[in-house]
Write a structure and sequence with these properties.
The structure is a single chain. The chain is an alpha+beta fold. The protein has a single domain, classed as Alpha-Beta Plaits (2-Layer Sandwich), CATH 3.30.70.20. It has two helices and four strands. The chain has helices at residues 15-19, 44-53, and strands at residues 2-5, 24-26, 33-35, 59-62. The strands form two sheets. The protein has a two-stranded antiparallel ribbon with strand order 1-4. The protein has a two-stranded antiparallel ribbon with strand order 2-3. A hairpin with a 6-residue loop joins β2 (24-26) and β3. The chain starts with a strand and ends with a strand. 23% of the residues are buried. Bound molecules: iron/sulfur cluster (SF4). Residues 5, 10-16, 24, 33, 54, 56, 58-59 line the site of iron/sulfur cluster (SF4).
Length: 66
């Protein structure tokens, strides 16, 4: 699975980091979220939840199957 956060869209609402702290981290300096770009497939439900929760639609992901 690949995950990315668009730094131009993210406004650091931090919903993703609350839902999936294993994947998303807020940077201290410029207040955007960064992420593990290749998390385990087992984390897919959490990635989906973070995508749904993000008010900026800044998160995108892909899987081998899709
Ligand atoms: S929920 Fe969206 S806008 Fe908020 S920190 Fe995460 S990626 Fe950025």
């Amino acid at each position: 699975m690949t995950v990315s956060v668009d730094p131009h869209m993210c406004e650091a609402h931090a919903l993703c980091t609350e839902i999936a702290p294993e994947i998303f981290t807020l940077s201290d300096d410029d207040d955007i979220a960064t992420c593990d770009e290749h998390p385990s497939e087992a984390l897919l439900p959490k990635v989906r939840a973070a995508v749904d929760a993000c008010p900026r639609q800044a998160i995108s992901f892909g899987t081998e199957q899709s």
